[in-house]
Design a protein that fits this description.
This is DoxX family protein. Its main location: membrane. By secondary structure, this protein is an all-alpha fold. The protein has nine helices and no strands.
């Protein structure tokens, strides 16, 4: 299965469609926030504060949906810095979405999508998060094959050449091979 996802040209086409769909979903979610004054405008932090307070409320009772340690994190770290979290969430969703749609640093974008989906799930929401998390895992497993039909086709070889040059420079100057990027 892993080999199929990583190497098959037919899987590449399906993964490209999946990557673009997930990217569009992230962009749609971000546009609701980026254009809202309570997320990114003069009242930034108000929108995320309501969400975070709701998560804390779900951490009590006989069957809490939010773990106590995560509620502590929200109360002690996220809520006091709600404005920063509001901006990071809003623009993070937008950046992940754009990167996935155009296929630029796809694996990293999918990983950041996984991190955001996990954070939302830990905060007690479900919505599309479980589905997106599963599909993003397919993109991570597929690696470069999910990005082949995108800007990564041009970017990744360039980055690899740059790292090889850097490694060769290190080899020449120090006399040994540190194998940083091997």
């Amino acid at each position: 299965m892993v080999k199929f996802l990583r190497e098959n040209p037919y899987a590449r086409m399906v993964l490209t469609a999946l990557r673009i769909w997930i990217g569009v979903e992230w962009i749609r979610a971000s546009l609701e926030k980026v254009g809202s004054p309570v997320w990114t405008g003069s009242q930034a932090g108000v929108g995320v504060s309501g969400f975070l307070r709701g998560a804390i409320a779900q951490s009590t009772g006989a069957h809490p949906t939010v773990e106590g340690w995560y509620a502590d994190f929200i109360r002690d770290v996220a809520l006091p810095h709600a404005k920063i979290f509001s901006l990071v969430v809003s623009f993070g969703e937008l950046l992940v979405g754009v990167a996935l749609v155009i296929g630029c640093f796809t694996t990293f974008a999918a990983l950041m999508g996984v991190c955001m989906n996990m954070a939302y799930l830990l905060a007690g929401t479900s919505s599309t998060n479980p589905n997106m998390l599963i599909w993003e895992m397919f993109l991570l497993i597929a690696g470069y094959n999910a990005a082949y039909l995108g800007l990564d086709y041009f970017i990744i070889p360039w980055v690899r050449r740059r790292f090889r040059r850097s490694q060769n420079t290190l080899n020449d100057s120090s006399g040994h091979n540190p194998k940083l990027f091997a």
